[in-house]
Amino acid sequence: MLDFLKWNAWGISPEIWAVILLVLATLLSSAMSFRRGDVAYSLVIAWAFIGIALKQAATPLASIAAWAATAVVLVDLAAASILHARRRIPSRENA
Fold it and tell me: Which of 29, 47, 53, 87 could disulfide-link to 66, CB 3.0 to 4.6 Å?
């Protein structure tokens, strides 16, 4: 859509925009993982990032950023899952 509108991207290269948007999507995924424990949301984001990394293999900055973002999303998902599981298990002191 932005390309159709002839948006000049404020002079920022498309590769840098890709990294910026990957960072924003990673932050959003982390928030969903930790606040809501939404596993499916994070898995879809990771799947999309893998697709971006593979599709942009000829653009090293975008590809590497997408792989790194995938790793961060999956680590966040694991950490959030552990955190949410601990919250659900009653402690021995309360038993």
Answer: 53
Whole-model pTM: value is 0.81
For the chain, give the secondary structure using H, E and C: CCCCCCCCHHHCCHHHHHHHHHHHHHHHHHHHHHHHCCHHHHHHHHHHHHHHHHHCCCCHHHHHHHHHHHHHHHHHHHHHHHHHHHHHCCCHHHC
Residue 44 has pLDDT above 80, yes or no: yes
The type of residue at 21 is: L
Residue with tokens 């799947």: 47
